[in-house]
Amino acid sequence: MTHSLDDAAAEFYAALGAVLGGDAGPMLELWSHEDDVSYMSPFGELLRGWEPIRASWTGQAEAQLGGVVRGEELHLVEGDLLGFAVGFERGEVLVDGTPTPVDIRATSIFRREDGRWRMVGHHTDPLG
User: How far is CA 35 from CA 24, 39, 90, 121, 123, in A?
Assistant: First the structure.
């Protein structure tokens, strides 16, 4: 079965749900483990390289924020080796037990590695 960019984007949001529930495993599997990956999180940090990104997602999972964040209005462009998704991330997480809305502008960049799309970049900006 072919692994499409649409599949990879859906896997990212499923993995994000797992992180919110305390499990970083699916997110860590989705990302490329190469040194050229980057992540600009909604917390304002710019991370470069696999190890800082792994640590960030692991820490987010340990926080067990709960809630749901969905990709909305996604525009996907798929090339032979690179693809990207731009759109919005919307939903709600719990911060200190208080439901907090999520309204983020997001760009995800994927690279084909061993026949699968792996995330190599994720950039987010809160809209609020």
Answer: 19, 12, 29, 11, 17
pTM score of the predicted model:
0.93
Domains and CATH numbers, the chain: 5-126 (3.10.450.50)
pLDDT in tens, 40-54: 988 889 999 999 999
CA distances (Å), origin 81, targets 5, 31, 65, 109: 11, 15, 34, 11
CB 50 within 8 A of CB 63: no
State the Cα–Cα distance between residues 72 and 23, nearest whole angstrom. 23
Q: Which residues pair with 95 in a beta bridge?
A: 98
Tell the residue number behind the tokens 């209005």, with chain if given.
73
